[in-house]
TrEMBL record:
It comes from the Eukaryota. InterPro entries: UPF0538. This is Altered inheritance rate of mitochondria protein 29. Belongs to the UPF0538 family. The gene is YK54. Pfam families: DUF2340 (PF10209).
Length: 147
């Protein structure tokens, strides 16, 4: 008779606490040409950081880091969750068109609040899209890609 012990390892997204999370911000320069560059945010406290603070943090990185020089000519004003860890991804490679009501963290139509990212549904290993809201609305109305 064999005794087999199974120990389930925790998911990697659950290993880090919300006070020391890792998230990916997908900086979208062009929806039409699928110009996207990832910015990894290490050791972010999701329980204390707000969406407007994250927006300012990433915009500062774009304006100071040489790797993001081609992305500086866009007025970024919106953040939206692209996917959560171990969740299904969108069929669109640039942005998730689904759930605009719940997953848009900040935009011209969604005013910034003092609500933490954690309370807005952001977890460890979440991917968030950074983009211009007017470009998003135009692309959503006619999602044609050129390349």
């Amino acid at each position: 008779m064999s005794t087999e012990i199974t120990v389930e390892e925790p998911l990697t997204s659950n290993v880090r606490p919300a006070t020391d999370a890792l998230i990916t911000v997908r900086i979208i320069k062009s929806f039409l040409y699928r110009n996207v560059k990832n910015h990894i945010v290490h050791s972010i406290n999701l329980k204390e950081t707000t969406a407007s603070q994250l927006l300012d943090l990433v915009k500062s990185a774009i304006n100071t880091m040489g790797a993001y020089r081609p992305y500086r000519n866009i007025e970024y004003d919106s953040l939206k969750i692209y996917t959560k860890a171990h969740g299904s991804k969108s069929m669109n490679l640039v942005i998730n068109f689904e759930n605009d009501q719940g997953w848009v963290l900040i935009s011209p139509s969604v005013t910034a609040t003092e609500t933490s990212l954690w309370d807005l549904g952001v977890e460890n290993e979440t991917e968030i899209s950074l983009f211009n809201w007017n470009d998003y609305v135009a692309f959503k109305a006619n999602p044609e890609e050129k390349w």
